[in-house]
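Case 432 in the screening queue. Each case pairs one protein sequence with one candidate compound; here the compound is pyridoxal-5'-phosphate. For every case the pipeline is the same: read the inputs, emit a complex structure as tokens, and attach any notable structural observations.

Predict complex for case 432.
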Amino acid sequence: MRYLSTRGTSIETGIVPALESGLAPDGGLYLPERLPEFAPGDFAGHHDPAAVCTHLLAPFFAESPLAGALPALCTEAFGQPLLLDRLRGAGDFVLELFHGPTAAFKDIGARFLAAALSTLRRPGDPMQTILVATSGDTGGAVAAAFHRRAGFRVVILYPRFGVSPRQAQQLGAFADNVQALSVNGTFDDCQRMAKAALGDANLRARLRLGTANSISLGRLLPQAAYYAWASLEHWRASGAPLSFVVPTGNLGNALAALLAKRMGLPIARIVLACNANDTLPRFFSGQPYAPQPSRATLANAMDVGAPSNFERLRALYPNDDAIRADLSAIAVEDDEIRGTLTTARARHGIEPCPHTACALNVLERLRSQGDVGAWCIVATAHPAKFPEIVEPAFGHAVAAPAALARLLEQPSRSWPMEPDLRALQTRLLAAT
Ligand SMILES: *Cc1c(COP(=O)(O)O)cnc(C)c1O
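Case 432 output:
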């Protein structure tokens, strides 16, 4: 399989360079030249998530140096339980993706990517720096995935006032080969700095720089596998396709759902649940695409005003109206998130994180509009990551899962930084 840049220039590459560089040389994002096509029956005998992932991703890795390692990579990515559960309402489901080391869905993609890059390393290769901008959960997942892997260091950029105290504690708790930089700016500043550093020829000449942001194909592709798995589970039990409501920020998770659908998995509809950062809901309501500065909300991992994967979405369709015909997006304001957190247990039988609450709120709206069919909300993080938000709404304390609890007990350290590329360059070069 060959990979092309979304910017439409003639850059074409294999999966390995696409995974290693993250961004195409023209500044675009990589997409496969075509999507393989599957029918549900093609997955006969592939039941657990790692097996579904291996079968789904085989065409993407065919004839690459990673082809033989693919089953091991999928086993590592899905080394955590994946749960598809019923909610209280008829036809309502939840897909829980937060049973990994940092209790957010990003663990799955990050572990796949880390395992892939580790597999590609040869003795004597220079150290590779993984640069990652985070609105909270990416940094932790990437740090956990690369923590103590020989030959790698992780540099995390996070907005000082844009992550929860518990997220900040977690980001600084890894130590060893992980450095957390607390940027005096927004997530968009962090993302811009990371992109600029990755595109800086001078820096790249002196450092082996890679990224593990949600633009990396190494995260996007394995994420398609949990949609494949969940839709197949549902298909096998009921013979009907499953629709998904996906909490959405940078559009990585939702794009993975779309890829699974376009590859022929039994997925009916995909609805994006956004927070008050309504760039996508505005676009889907018919307005031109207009990125905005990000705003702080209760669902902070979705505080994105310029979703980086939008470029991929556009590259997959002939025009904007075709995108609008296939997907939709709904904004959920903070007071609605609070309301849903408060009533979720009684109405649905779960206690969601604020991001998952956006999806639950959207599900309620779809049902109240008379939508029938099987709908699955995607639960992207464990509520214990956001105690200051969820505990007042639930009316009780939420215990952290064991892996997260261990991290929260570690001492935490971060380095302050201004939102300025020069400062980042200096730090990256100084600390090699
Ligand atoms: C990152 C994140 C999201 C948003 O996912 P995208 O792939 O950026 O759209 C939603 N919820 C949680 C908990 C996250 O960490």
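Case 432 observations:
- The longest strand covers residues 152-159.
- The chain has a mean pLDDT of 94.
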